[in-house]
Design a protein that fits this description.
4 helices, six-stranded mixed sheet
């Protein structure tokens, strides 16, 4: 079942790309999506947001050398999962790779339905798959 309360941030300088990615999320029943067009907007929302983002999908071109995206997102308490696409340093032999447990990196110019679906299976995993939420009891 889709968690409709998940917060998603899309960052891409091209309006058409933001719309296309947002529609991919909408097709999976995710509608709480915030699109931004530049790095300043992204940093403002991530740094000063009162609630963490569950997923961030960002075009690596947006940072264009002014910010180390991997360093910024690794262990950032304001972001649970990240997909960095259009990253030239990503391995060409794989569509998706992991830099760390919470960051996926892709060389593709624009993520497709499969990449978004994969991201959301990690982000919106059933609670029982994430581990027990109650203390475990030993029964005799």
């Amino acid at each position: 079942m889709t968690n409709k309360a998940l917060r998603i941030l899309i960052a891409d300088p091209q309006h058409f790309h933001r719309m296309k990615i947002e529609r991919l999320f909408n097709a999976l029943d995710y509608y709480r999506v915030a699109p931004v067009q530049n790095l300043a907007e992204l940093l403002t929302l991530v740094d000063y947001g009162c609630e963490p983002f569950d997923a961030v999908v960002i075009n690596a071109e947006l940072a264009s050398g002014s910010l180390n995206l991997l360093g910024f997102f690794l262990d950032n308490p304001q972001v649970r999962q990240v997909l960095i696409y259009n990253e030239p340093s990503a391995p060409r032999n794989a569509t998706l790779g992991y830099a760390q447990k919470n960051v996926q990196i892709s060389h593709v110019a624009l993520p497709g339905a499969q990449a978004i679906r994969h991201l959301m299976t990690v982000v919106d995993a059933p609670r029982w798959a994430q581990g027990p939420s109650l203390p475990q009891r030993a029964y005799a």
